[in-house]
Amino acid sequence: MPGYKQQPLTYGLPQACPARAGLASPLNKIYFLVHPRLKFRPSGQPDKESRSTAGSKAVNAVSNAQRHLSIEATLISEQLSIPKMHRLVITITLLLTLIACQKNSPVELDLAIPNGDFEQWDANQNLLIWRTNSCPLCVPPFETYIVQKQTDATHGQFAAKFIYNNAYNSIATNKFAISVHPSALTAYVKSNIASGDTALLQVDLFRNNARVDSGKWLETTSTANYKKLEIQITQTSPGIDSALITILGGKRESTELFVDNLEFVKR
C-alpha cells in the first residue's frame, strides 16, 4: 500500500498499564501498517507546546487514538487476509485495552496563567500583566521597589522577589478569564521569613463576580532552596469564568519571598 510501511506492534497496550501487559501477548505477532505521518505519544506529562494550548486538545486525544486504532486494525486484517470475525476480535481487544489503561492513567492538564512564569517586565523593571504596589522609579525616604525582578529562577530567566520596606507589605494580583475549573495551583517558592512573620499565596475562582472556590498557602518558615507547592482548590462550583491570584509578602524587616512558574493543574 503506497505511503505505508510495516512495523512490529509496539503500542497494543500503553506503557502506563504494566500490570495488564499480559493482555497484549496474543497480539505480539500482528504487524501494523503505520502511515509515516501518524504519530502516537506515550502517556505522561505533556510537552511545553501542548501545555500552553487549549485543554480540549488533550481531552480529544483519547477518542482520536481509539479511532486510529480501529482504522489500523482494519488495515492489518485486510492486508493479512484475516477472517472477518478475527478482525472484529482484534479491533475490540485493542479498544478495550486502551480504555482500561485510560481509567488508570487520568489526563492531567497544565493551564497557563498570564505571565505566571514572571518573564515579562518593562524597561523600568515593573512586572507586566500583574498589578503591584511596587514603584521602581519612586524616590520617597523608603524603598518602593518591593516586587523585584530576579535572575535566580527555576523556570526561564526571571522570578519575582517580594520584600518588606518597613512601611507596607509587597503585593501582586493577577485576575484573568478562565473557563476550565482547575484542581490546584502549582508554584515554586523559596523564602527568608523573619520570626513571627507570614507570606501568602492565594487563588480565588469566580462566577458572575461571585467567589465560588479558593485555595491558600501560608509561608511561616524560611526555605533556602526552591520547593514546589501544590495548593489544592475547592470544587464547590463546576462552572467558573475568572480567577484571581494574590501574592502577599511579609510585614517584618528582612522577610523575602521568591516566586516562580505558577500554573493551574486540572485532573
Mean pLDDT: 78
Radius of gyration in whole Å, from Cα? 25 Å
Structural class call reads alpha+beta
> Would you count the extended β strands for me?
13
- Which blocks of ≥5 consecutive residues have pLDDT under 50? 1-54
Shape: elongated
- Secondary-structure element order, as H and E? EEHHHEEEEEEEEEEE
Number of helices: 3
Q: Strand-residue fraction?
A: 25-35%
Distance between the termini: 41 Å
Major sheet size, sense and barrel closure: 6 strands, antiparallel
Task: Specify the helix fraction band.
Answer: 10-25%
Describe the structure in your own words:
The chain is α+β, with helices and mostly antiparallel strands. It contains 3 helices and 13 strands, in the order ββαααβββββββββββ. It has helices spanning 48-52, 56-79, 84-104; strands spanning 5-8, 31-34, 109-111, 131-132, 147-150, 159-163, 171-177, 184-192, 199-207, 210-219, 223-232, 242-248, 256-266. Strands 3, 5, 6, 8, 11 and 13 form a 6-stranded antiparallel sheet that branches. A hairpin with an 8-residue loop joins β5 (147-150) and β6. α2 (56-79) runs antiparallel to α3 (84-104). The longest helix has 24 residues, at 56-79. The radius of gyration is 25 Å and the shape is elongated. The two termini are 41 Å apart. Mean pLDDT is 78; it is low at 1-54.
Structure summarized in a few sentences:
The protein is built from 3 helices and 13 strands.
